[in-house]
Amino acid sequence: MASIRKKLTENVNDSKNTRMDIANANLLGNWRPDEITHMTRYDKISSLCIEESNKFGRPIDTLEVGCGEIWVLRNLYKAYTVKKRDIIRSYVGVDIDPAVLTEKAGFHSPTGQVMDSAWFKNFTGRLDIQDLTVNPKFDVEDESIDFFWTTEVIEHMKPEFIRPWLEDAHRVLRPGGLVYVSTPNHDGSNDKLPEDHVYEWGFRELHDELTRNWELDIVVGTFCQMPRLRKAMQKDMREEGEMRWTEDQFDILKARFGKQFLRVVAATFYPEIANNCAWILRKPK
């Protein structure tokens, strides 16, 4: 299934406007590896929202860049038996595409607008249409956000435009605030890229950028090509000392998961060789 690609009326810096068609994949059962991996990210962020809310003993204020069809909130709304207002006090979603304002994916509002939907109002949600390459400042007060996330966004912009809005995300985060960033992990030339990508950051390059302002909690792989994954796991098994895997553990994983889920699950432990990584960080207190 092809990604959703729409030409923007205004796109002065040639960003790529594309997203996974999760709604139709769900309807048709047309799950490619990419859709599977995307859903694991949305579910993880939903869980982090609950964990942060429990930690603070109050609902949290959240900001998402590249919100698309707001799959994190949709997942939280349907997959978790929690009172939504107890988890999220406010949500701001930022996207370059005005199409995200239109209701999709089964939660229809009387006006057809997401912000008029009863489910979205559970999160006191707001959507801002904004080209961050032109205006990297969020319409959000200083130190008012507990959790900022962006998934599969920075690879769609030229690299020189990323730092300004990451800096502004730092501004709006409260001390101790949580950050989740996922993006392809490119370890070679950017000469050959997917049609929808402008620039893929290298592992060390992105590490240095993200840790300029934030403290790294953990970085994990989100998926990996099976030949690279198998080679890395076998290397761990051969090395002396503490190993991440034994032959029995590997066989158990293969018995439990099919190939596409296995490349998501096992890649967790190999961010340096993964095709995509998730970075979890915090703003220093």
What descriptive keywords fit this protein?
Rossmann fold; about 20% strand; 7-stranded mixed sheet; alpha/beta
Major sheet summary line: 7 strands, mixed
H/E series? EEHHEHHEHEEHEHEHHHE
Shape: globular
Cα-based radius of gyration, to the nearest Å: 19 Å
Strand content: 15-25%
Task: Give an overview in words.
With 285 residues, the protein is of the alpha/beta class. The chain has 2 domains: 4-221 and 274-282, Rossmann fold (3-Layer(aba) Sandwich), CATH 3.40.50; 225-269, no CATH class. The protein has 10 helices and 9 strands. It has helices at residues 22-28, 33-56, 71-79, 84-87, 118-121, 162-172, 203-210, 226-238, 247-256, 259-265; strands spanning 4-5, 18-19, 60-65, 88-95, 125-129, 145-151, 173-184, 215-223, 276-282. The protein has a 7-stranded mixed β-sheet. A two-stranded antiparallel sheet has the order 1-2. Helix 2 (33-56) packs across helix 3 (71-79). It is globular and about 60 Å long.
